[in-house]
């Protein structure tokens, strides 16, 4: 679901509901400033209803978050960038290249650019963004990517009560084929609901064994306390991220693969805890990805508060074609983003 932080007023939206039988039915959960609505995608009827996220609870969470941010900022030393760590192994994508990714799911036109346009138009637009980034920073080669939400948080509990659905292998194979047409990487993003990342990731191992397939983990939908996804913003701790670093690292070693990339979404402080305990392994490159939407000044503030001030390894930045411009603003340009410190090496468009 989407979170809101009153300090940054930065929100995001994602998610859908998927039922493979008796017929394909897909719905999008769309949060607008704390109100949760169920929208139909691709002509499907809404299949569930949620209560609106409590505005009071959202305010209390954001006030506490802002207070903690100021306290920690005053007490901590200046962050160190670039982060000291192991040198990249042969075949590593980062930091030699900058990744430009399109996010979404082809079953939903409302979930992101990946599913909004017919495939040929979508890939052509991706190439235009790649060209724009290459022009803005000629010294850094650009690597295109598709970022598929492959496990989707659900509006209902499902048979096992986990509030998530795994996309079929045929869908992943289709999007992987699109990526290869464009010499692009494929990222598989997991919204685990009441399941765990340790259970969900191995379900895609046949794809993660491929050298061009990488992983994304979304704390927003990781509900460790048993809450229904969408009722509040979820979280991951360093131990969850480290578990994925270990898992991907073992795949790299076992199958003689180039280093994997692990993208971790973040738009509030409490979405990711214990960042200082995230370990660095040369087999896995970790990207902390600023995932909030809003005006440019707010996106910059979020990047400063949640990415710059808590160094892990590499950084990412997300742009929303619609949500970033919904109040008459303009989408940040590559030159705008290149003015950030540190310069993000993973850029995602939704």
Radius of gyration, CA atoms, in whole angstroms: 19 Å
Mean pLDDT, nearest integer? 82
Number of alpha- plus pi-helical segments: 9
Query: Order of strands across the widest beta sheet?
Result: 4-5-7-8-10-12-13-14
Beta-strand segment tally: 14
Query: Unreliable segments (pLDDT under 50, ≥5 consecutive)?
Result: 1-71
The string of secondary-structure elements, in order, is EEEHEHHEEHEHHEEHEEEHEHE
Basic shape: globular
Major β-sheet profile: 8 strands, parallel, barrel
Q: Which structural class matches the secondary elements?
A: alpha/beta
| Helix percentage range | 25-40%
Distance between the termini: 15 Å
Question: What amount of the residues lies in strands?
Answer: 15-25%
Could you characterize the architecture of this molecule?
This protein has an eight-stranded parallel β-barrel with strand order 4-5-7-8-10-12-13-14, surrounded by four helices. A three-stranded antiparallel beta sheet has the order 1-2-3, with no helix packed on it. The radius of gyration is 19 Å and the shape is globular. Helices cover 29% and strands 23% of the residues. The protein contains nine helices and 14 strands. Mean pLDDT is 82; it is low at 1-71. It has 350 residues and is of the alpha/beta class.
